[in-house]
Amino acid sequence: MTGCTGYLGKIILEKVLRSCSDFKKVYVLIRNKKGTTVAKRLHRDIFNSPIFQHLFQTRPELVDVVKERVIAIQGDLIMGNLGMLQQDRDLLINEVNIIINSAASIDMTESLRNMLQIDYLGPVRIL
Fold this sequence. Notes:
This protein has helices at 7-19, 38-47, 50-58, 62-69, 86-95, 112-119, 121-126; strands spanning 26-30, 70-74. By secondary structure, the chain is mainly alpha-helical. It has one domain (7-126). It has a two-stranded parallel sheet. It is globular. The two termini are 13 Å apart.
C-alpha cells in the first residue's frame, strides 16, 4: 500500500485491517523523513491517528495482529527503483499479490510536472 500517511490511505488501511483480519502481511511503503525511521512513522503517523485508536479500542485482538503483520517498507514513488533497498524490492516482488495505491500530491500549487511524478508515474514505477 502507498499513501498510508495521508487521509485516504489511512481510511483504506483501516478498512482492510477491520474487514480482512486474516491477511498474511500488509507492506506499507513510507518515505523517510529526517530523524524518523519508517517504522516510527508507521506507528506515530498512522497507528496513532484517531481512526486506528477507535479500531484498536473496539477490536483489541487486532493490536497484536497489526504489530506482527503490517510492515513498513522505506520507499519513495518519485525515485528510481522506488527508492527501495534491493532486498525489500525482492521481498515485495515475491510476496505481494495486491497493490493499493493511494499516494497522491495534494499540493495544488505544485507544478503539473511534479504532480505527474507522484500521481501518474508513481504507479507506473510500481508496476
